[in-house]
Amino acid sequence: MKEITRKFSKILQQRLYEDLNFIQIVLGPRQVGKTTGLQQIISRWQGQSLMVSADEVITPTRDWLNLQWEKARNLAKGSLFVIDEVQKIPHWSETVKYLYDRDRTKRHCKIVLLGSASLTLIKGLAESLVGRYEIIPATHWDLQECYEAFGWELIDFLKYGGYPAAAKLVSDFTRWRDFIRNSIIEPVLIKDILGLSSVHKPALFRQTFELAMAYPAQEISLQKLLGQLQESGNVTTIKHYLELFDAAFLVKTLQKFTGSEIKKRGSSPKIIPLNNALIHAFHSPDDVDSNAEWFGRVFEAAIGAALSKSRGNLYYWREGKFEVDFILQSAGKIYAIEVKSGRKRSTRGLEKFIQQYPDSIPFLIDQKLGCQLLGCQDVDFFINNH
C-alpha cells in the first residue's frame, strides 16, 4: 500500500510550525488514519515528542491525564504532545483547560488532541475550551486517495468504501465483512457510543443501525423504521439513536428543506451512510454489479457523504411526487443537486424546486462528475466552480 499523506495531516503540520499556540483538535471517525497521520508528523518532527492514547488505558482518569501532561512539561522547548481518544477521559475538557491555562506563560509544547466521538468532544470544547482551540476534520477516505493507495476505481469504492486497513481483505468478502463489523463498527457502537452515552436498549440500538444501512440515501419515516425492528421502542428513541450514529461519524441524517426550521426538525430523515463499507457490512456488494437500482442508491449515498464534507448545510427536498436528491446551502447560495447514476429519472423535481426557489442553482451529477466530486479535497470549491 502506498503511503498517503492526508489533507488533515498537511493542515496540522503547517499549523504546528506557526507561532500561534492553540490546541489543535483532529476530529474524525475511527480507522481513517488520524493516528497514522500524527505518527508521520512525529517522524519528521525536529524536537522531542510524546504521544499517548486514552484508548489503551483500561480506565483513563484525570490523574492519568495530569501525569501525561507533567511528562510533556519536562520535554525540551519546541516539543510535540499528542493525546489520542481524549474524549474517553472523564471531565477531560476541564482538566485540559486548567493545565493549558496554568502553562500559558511558559508553555513550550505544541498540543494536539485526537478524537472520534464528536458529540462528547464538541460538548467538552463548548463548555470549557472556548477560544483555546482549532478543529481540523479528518474525514473518511475519498476516491482519489483509494485510487492512489489501492488502485480502486469507482465500482470498488462504491462496494468497499474507504477504510484503508480493510482494503487488503476485499478478495475474501467474508473476512472483509467480519473485519468491518468487528474492528470498525463494533468499537464505535460499544466504546464510542454505548461507553459514553445513555442507551437503555442496546439490542434495539444495534438493530436500528443495521436497519438504517438497508436504506442508503432514502427518506424513511421513523415510524416505518420502528415497525421493522424486533424490539419495542418509540420514535423518540429511534431519533435519538440516529443522532448518536450521526455524532459518531457513521451516518448523516438529512432533514427536508422547507424554509422553516420547525418543519425541518419534524420531517422524515434521509439516511446517508458516511462510508459505503458500512452498507455492505450487512448487504452483498455484488448487487452493485447486478442491480441497477442498488447501484443508484449506493452511488447517491456516496455523493451525499461527499457533500456532507461541505462547510454549508445539507438537506433533501420533496413535495408530493417531486423530489431533489440534495439541497446544499453554502456561502449564501442554494444548490439544488440531482444525482444521475444511469437510471432513467426525470428532472421534474429539479424544475419544480427552481420554480419555487428561482435564485437556487441547479446542479446535475452524473457518474463522470461524481467521480471528480468523490475524489476532490474541497467540496465547496468543487461545487462553486462547476
Continuous helix count: 18
Widest sheet: strand order?
Answer: 2-3-4-1-5
How many domains? The number is 2
Mean pLDDT: 89
Low-confidence stretches: none
**SS strand fraction:** 15-25%
Order of helices and strands: HEHEHEHEHEHHHHEHHEHEHHHEEEHEHH
> Number of DSSP strands?
12
- State the shape: globular
Estimated helix fraction: 40-55%
Q: Which structural class best describes the helix and strand composition?
A: alpha/beta
Taking the sheet with the most strands, its summary is: 5 strands, parallel
How far apart the termini lie comes to 32 Å
Radius of gyration: 22 Å
SSE layout and pairing:
Blueprint lengths: L6 H10 L6 E5 L6 H11 L4 E5 L8 H12 L5 E6 L7 H11 L6 E7 L2 H11 L4 E5 L5 H8 L3 H7 L12 H22 L7 H11 L5 E2 L2 H6 L7 H13 L3 E4 L6 H6 L3 E4 L2 H5 L6 H4 L1 H16 L5 E7 L2 E9 L2 E7 L8 H9 L4 E5 L1 H8 L4 H6 L2
Parallel strand pairs: 1-4, 1-5, 2-3, 3-4, 11-12
Antiparallel strand pairs: 6-8, 7-8, 9-10, 10-11
Description of the molecule:
- This protein is α/β, with parallel strands linked by helices and 386 residues long.
- The chain has two domains: 7-137, P-loop containing nucleotide triphosphate hydrolases (Rossmann fold), CATH 3.40.50; 198-384, no CATH class.
- Helix content is 46%, strand content 17%.
- The chain has helices at 7-16, 34-44, 62-73, 92-102, 118-128, 143-150, 154-160, 173-194, 202-212, 222-227, 235-247, 261-266, 276-280, 287-290, 292-307, 348-356, 367-374, 379-384; strands at residues 23-27, 49-53, 79-84, 109-115, 133-137, 218-219, 251-254, 270-273, 313-319, 322-330, 333-339, 361-365.
- A five-stranded parallel sheet has the order 2-3-4-1-5, sandwiched between helices. Strands 9-10-11-12 form a four-stranded mixed sheet.
- It is globular and about 65 Å long.
- The protein starts with 6 loop residues before the first helix and ends with a helix.
